[in-house]
């Protein structure tokens, strides 16, 4: 293919949207012969007929349909970056694809939906699974608008992030557990039956790696692949779990579970909202960033971190 004229993609996009050369010319403020001439150049550049006449309009070839599916979102992002359009969350239809874990969904989704119902009826939010290995490419390739995860200093320079909160690990158990309501000693921690959240079913996690460095080992008596079932399992059984405080804060604040600091020092994980710089000036994306920041602050105010997790 010869060097691509990006103007051709803009004209191509307009024809695809309008389904007519004359209507595309009107939208682009071009003459119809100029648009027809651009189609001729597309055929040479793309090596395909691109559009075929049908009645008063044109029909895209399979190649053109495939090309449009791959380019239209990127073209819209470029347009938004150059000329951001006003965003009214009440009347404008907007879809956000957000890379999230099930824990993030538990923390944010209900409150985010509440905000949408209050004054953003045009907004749809889709949860998209991701891994730390795929996160960066998903953002770079516009497969998602945002990811809520740990930002890395080695991320691509095109990625931006906003710190949301620091994720502290907590050791939690039912109020009936023999180890509840007293300091948790490392010796007792090792002897207890542990519940572990593991997406793969693997018994080895960050806690086990740290214990191994100390020459110690715990018994992971049960694993689950969902954070949402942890409170019920702890309330009804003699298990303890070491996991991010965000997974159980609602249950500890109302006294349903006992929470204490783990007897080993687990690194604090900063959690951020991450997006691509192409959306930096996009008003719709700015609205969601502000909405998530507002929800995060309210969660911090309503559910302060227990002093025991901050103790040295």
Overview of this protein structure:
With about 300 residues, this protein is an alpha/beta fold. The protein contains twelve helices and twelve strands. The strands form three sheets. A five-stranded mixed beta sheet has the order 4-3-5-12-6. Helix 8 links the parallel strand 8 and strand 9 (about 220-225). Helix 1 crosses helix 4 (about 60-80), helix 2 packs across helix 3 (about 30-45) and helix 5 (about 100-120) crosses helix 11 (about 285-300). The longest helix is centred in the first third of the chain and has 21 residues, at about 60-80. The protein is elongated and about 85 Å long. The model has no long low-confidence stretch (mean pLDDT about 90).
């Amino acid at each position: 293919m010869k060097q691509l004229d990006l103007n051709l993609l803009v004209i191509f996009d307009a024809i695809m949207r309008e389904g007519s050369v004359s209507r595309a010319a009107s939208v682009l403020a071009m003459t119809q012969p100029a648009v027809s001439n651009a189609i001729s150049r597309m055929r040479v550049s793309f090596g395909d007929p691109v559009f075929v006449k049908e009645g008063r309009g044109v029909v895209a070839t399979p190649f053109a349909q495939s090309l449009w599916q791959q380019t239209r979102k990127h073209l819209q992002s470029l347009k938004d970056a150059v000329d951001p359009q006003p965003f009214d969350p009440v009347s404008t239809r907007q879809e956000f694809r957000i890379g999230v874990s099930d824990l993030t969904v538990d923390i944010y989704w209900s409150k985010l939906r509440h905000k949408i119902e209050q004054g953003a009826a045009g907004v749809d939010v889709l949860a998209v699974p991701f891994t730390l290995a795929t996160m960066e490419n998903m953002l770079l390739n516009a497969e998602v608008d945002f990811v809520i995860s740990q930002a890395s200093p080695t991320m691509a320079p095109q990625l931006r992030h906003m710190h949301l909160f620091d994720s502290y690990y907590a050791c939690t158990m039912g109020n009936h557990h023999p180890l509840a309501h007293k300091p948790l000693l490392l010796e007792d921690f090792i002897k207890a039956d542990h519940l572990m959240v593991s997406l793969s079913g693997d018994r080895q996690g960050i806690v086990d790696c740290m214990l191994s460095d100390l020459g110690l080992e715990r018994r992971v008596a049960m694993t689950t692949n969902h954070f949402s079932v942890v409170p019920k399992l702890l309330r009804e059984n003699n298990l303890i779990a070491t996991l991010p405080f965000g997974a159980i804060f609602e249950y500890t604040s109302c006294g349903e579970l006992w929470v204490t600091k783990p007897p080993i020092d687990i690194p604090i994980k900063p959690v951020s909202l991450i997006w691509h710089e192409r959306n930096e000036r996009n008003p719709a994306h700015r609205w969601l960033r502000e909405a998530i920041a507002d929800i995060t602050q309210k969660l911090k105010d309503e559910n302060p971190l227990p002093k025991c997790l901050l103790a040295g």
